[in-house]
Write a structure and sequence with these properties.
The protein has 2 helices and 9 strands. The strands form 3 sheets. A 4-stranded antiparallel sheet has the order 3-2-6-7, with no helix packed on it. The chain has a 3-stranded mixed sheet with strand order 4-1-9. The chain starts with a helix and ends with a strand.
């Protein structure tokens, strides 16, 4: 009987140190996997103007006064221009935002 109790105690002790579940693979965030970032555009026009957002030479979106817009883009350096809609008038000087992977950056224009 003492031997049985000893063996049960020994098996319990030995099994306590073992991990019973399979380790899980850590989840990699989508932005890290795809090397992306988020840029937030803000139209703060003092003149009630609508802006076209020109991102890397192409129109990305149009923002009404006091409107915001988000865009998921590749991380790195880009070109940005806020232009008064349906014109060639530059509302704010061209900029070159450099976005780090998984970051969020907000840029406002208040022409």
């Amino acid at each position: 009987m003492k031997r049985l109790i000893f063996l049960l105690g020994l098996s319990f002790f030995l099994s306590c140190g073992k991990e019973s579940s399979t380790p899980t693979t850590p989840t990699i965030p989508t932005c890290e996997r795809n090397n992306t970032a988020v840029i937030q555009f803000q139209n703060r026009s003092a003149r009630n103007l609508t802006y076209d957002i020109i991102w890397d030479g192409s129109k990305a979106m149009t923002l009404a006064p006091n409107q915001n817009g988000d865009l998921t883009v590749s991380a790195g350096t880009h070109t940005l221009l806020f232009r008064v809609s349906n014109t060639s008038i530059t509302a704010c000087a061209q900029s070159s935002p450099n976005l780090a992977r998984c970051s969020t950056q907000a840029i406002a224009c208040s022409y």
